[in-house]
């Protein structure tokens, strides 16, 4: 009979060994080619057009942030909308407060110029 | 399905939230050059809510069924968080004007206070995590405020990553608890333990949670982030981190361990004693060679966390009373010291200890407050730190004699590096003898912290009584 501590030990050992085995197997089994084609930039399976060392504009970061803000809002809105009849007035008021706070966030982003493409 | 919510108990939180939103909207509708008033409005608003706390003291109970407990301990720590917020917003305005994003700072400061208030009331993993993250995420933004300078940016990144790591560790522990006990409620864990006993996995979960909290209170060996973050963050934020964040984290740490694992003390007191001993020794010894005042105060605050952990080992009524008393006293002393550092850095741009030479000739009040604060942290009578340390160490002498002795020795060691600052301030000649003029808000902050530190040292009874009333909930 194995003690609970022994079970944990086996769990850790298996996890540890398994990760090592997988790494080693990967190294041994994977085909290796060192041709130039392998080092080319990959762009959706197509040949690249023009230089690939272009800089992305930092502005995308702002859009991502504002997007996440409203993405999360949607996640919370859906379950609420589905059960709207059951949840009643209390949940409605809570939702209004929630959206109100998010609108303030949008207002701030707008005022700070996060929505303008520079 | 409806949730029972007692709004009467939630009034302080609702007021703080409203204050934060009000400041935010005000900052939106006024042009940037007219926003100076927002800093003072934040201080006054928080002060108003703080003045409500004696009334809130009378109303205790479950605010949200099973998730949010408003007891006297919670109210005590809420008042402490508000106090930290008041002082920080009072010393910040002049300093933040130079850095930029002025009004946002105060909005974040108010929301940080809200996070702390939620955190200290949590009795459920969800509310605990919600409060913790509200506090931590706003702190990440605040520590990264001086992003133009290299050490400022470093502080921000370091706090971001290490706060993330510590949250992950804490969450891992909490999810293990959920898996083992099928409950999110902290109090219910104790019941499950009573019925089923504990498994090694349970101890593992406990260690993870302990590590997560140890990060937040900067206990050795989880203290690595503290010195760099304390040095790189804007000085008012450092003061906030060292007082509010630490007090709130201690509050939830103790509530969690005391409520969830009362029957299995033998599994965690040894760990805690080791942590306390390490924290005191490393904090105090590494503080000695520091040349930067903020860094020295960071190590000293690590050491202070060690003393407070010592108090927790009593795991009884007297210990909790001592912790609450000491955290308040420590808050006053720390705010005093950091307020001086804020003004000095703002006027001269310097923060090395040797730059404080001759401060007594340039501004006697600043020198006096710095000395009183540092000596109170060292525990020299008749200052409040002495009474606090007496309350902390007295209950554990019987069971943990060696730890109490170590704490006393380390307190002696700490006197050395605190007195070194005093020496520089009073003995050395200043390079530049122009007197430093203080803004009113800082002047009041300095006077209040000094007065409280001295008065509580001579006559600690009033605060001790309040702490005692609060700690009653731990009488079983």
Automatic annotation (TrEMBL), chain A:
It catalyses: a quinone + NADH + 5 H(+)(in) = a quinol + NAD(+) + 4 H(+)(out). It is found in: Cell membrane; Membrane. GO terms for cellular component: NADH dehydrogenase complex; plasma membrane. Its EC number is 7.1.1.-. Its main location: membrane. It is a multi-pass membrane protein. Belongs to the complex I subunit 3 family. NDH-1 shuttles electrons from NADH, via FMN and iron-sulfur (Fe-S) centers, to quinones in the respiratory chain. The immediate electron acceptor for the enzyme in this species is believed to be a menaquinone. Couples the redox reaction to proton translocation (for every two electrons transferred, four hydrogen ions are translocated across the cytoplasmic membrane), and thus conserves the redox energy in a proton gradient. This is NADH-quinone oxidoreductase subunit A. It comes from Carboxydothermus islandicus. The lineage of its organism: Bacteria, Bacillati, Bacillota, Clostridia, Thermoanaerobacterales. The gene is nuoA.
TrEMBL record, chain B:
It catalyses: a quinone + NADH + 5 H(+)(in) = a quinol + NAD(+) + 4 H(+)(out). The chain crosses the membrane at residues 6-30, 37-55, 75-92, 99-120, 126-145, 157-181, 201-225, 237-261, 267-289, 323-344, 365-388, 400-419, 440-459. Keywords: Cell membrane, Membrane, NAD, Quinone, Translocase, Transmembrane, Transmembrane helix, Transport. GO terms for biological process: ATP synthesis coupled electron transport. GO terms for molecular function: NADH dehydrogenase (quinone) (non-electrogenic) activity; NADH dehydrogenase (ubiquinone) activity; quinone binding. Belongs to the complex I subunit 2 family. NCBIfam families: NDH_I_N. This is NADH-quinone oxidoreductase subunit N. It comes from Carboxydothermus islandicus. The gene is nuoN.
């Amino acid at each position: 009979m194995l003690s609970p501590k022994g079970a944990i030990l086996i769990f850790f050992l298996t996890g540890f060994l398994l990760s090592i085995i997988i790494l080693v197997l990967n190294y041994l089994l994977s085909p290796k080619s060192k041709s130039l084609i392998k080092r080319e930039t990959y762009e959706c399976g197509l040949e690249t057009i023009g230089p690939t060392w272009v800089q992305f504009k930092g502005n995308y970061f702002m859009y991502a942030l504002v997007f996440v803000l409203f993405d999360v809002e949607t996640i919370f809105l859906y379950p609420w909308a589905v059960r709207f009849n059951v949840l009643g007035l209390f949940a409605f008021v809570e939702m209004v407060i929630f959206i109100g706070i998010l609108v303030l966030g949008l207002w701030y982003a707008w005022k700070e110029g996060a929505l303008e493409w520079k | 399905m409806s949730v029972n919510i007692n709004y009467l108990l939630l009034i302080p939180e609702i007021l703080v939230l409203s204050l934060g939103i009000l400041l935010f909207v005000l900052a939106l509708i006024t042009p940037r050059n007219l926003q100076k008033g927002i800093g003072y409005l934040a201080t006054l608003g928080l002060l108003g809510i703080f003045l409500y706390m004696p009334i809130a003291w009378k109303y205790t109970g479950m605010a949200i069924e099973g998730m949010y407990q408003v007891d006297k301990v919670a109210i005590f720590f809420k008042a402490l968080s508000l106090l930290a917020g008041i002082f920080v917003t009072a010393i910040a305005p002049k300093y933040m004007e130079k850095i930029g994003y002025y009004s946002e700072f105060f909005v974040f400061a108010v929301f940080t206070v809200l996070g702390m208030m939620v955190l200290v009331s949590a009795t459920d993993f969800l509310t605990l995590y919600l409060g913790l993250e509200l506090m931590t995420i706003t702190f990440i933004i605040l520590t990264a405020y001086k992003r133009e300078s290299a050490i400022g940016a470093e502080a921000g990144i370091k706090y971001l990553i290490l706060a993330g790591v510590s949250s992950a560790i804490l969450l891992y522990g909490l999810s293990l608890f959920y898996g083992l006990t099928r409950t999110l409620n902290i109090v219910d864990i104790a019941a499950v333990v009573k019925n089923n006993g504990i498994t090694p996995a349970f101890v593992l979960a406990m260690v993870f949670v302990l590590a997560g909290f140890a990060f937040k209170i900067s206990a050795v060996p989880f203290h690595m982030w503290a010195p760099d973050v304390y040095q790189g963050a804007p000085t008012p934020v450092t003061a906030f981190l060292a007082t509010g964040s630490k007090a709130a984290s201690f509050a939830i740490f103790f509530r969690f361990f005391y409520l969830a694992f009362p029957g299995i003390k033998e599994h965690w007191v040894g760990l805690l004693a080791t942590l306390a001993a390490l924290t005191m020794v490393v904090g105090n010894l590494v503080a000695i060679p520091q040349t930067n005042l903020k860094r020295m105060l960071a190590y000293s605050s690590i050491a202070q966390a060690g003393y407070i952990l010592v108090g927790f080992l009593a795991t009884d009524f007297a210990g909790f009373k001592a912790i609450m008393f000491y955290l308040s006293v420590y808050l006053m002393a720390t705010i005093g010291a950091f307020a001086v550092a804020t003004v000095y850095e703002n006027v001269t741009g310097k923060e090395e200890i040797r730059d404080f030479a001759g401060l007594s000739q340039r501004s006697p009040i600043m020198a006096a407050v710095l000395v009183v604060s540092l000596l109170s942290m060292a525990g020299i009578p008749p200052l409040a730190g002495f009474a606090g340390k007496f309350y902390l160490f007295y209950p554990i002498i019987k069971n943990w004699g060696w730890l109490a002795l170590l704490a006393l020795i380390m307190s002696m060691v700490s006197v050395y590096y605190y007195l070194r600052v005093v020496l520089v301030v009073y003995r050395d000649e200043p390079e530049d003898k122009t007197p430093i003029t203080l803004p009113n808000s800082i002047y009041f902050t300095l006077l209040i912290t000094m007065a409280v530190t001295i008065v509580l040292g001579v006559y600690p009874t009033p605060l001790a009584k309040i702490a005692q009333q609060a700690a009653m909930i731990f009488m079983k």
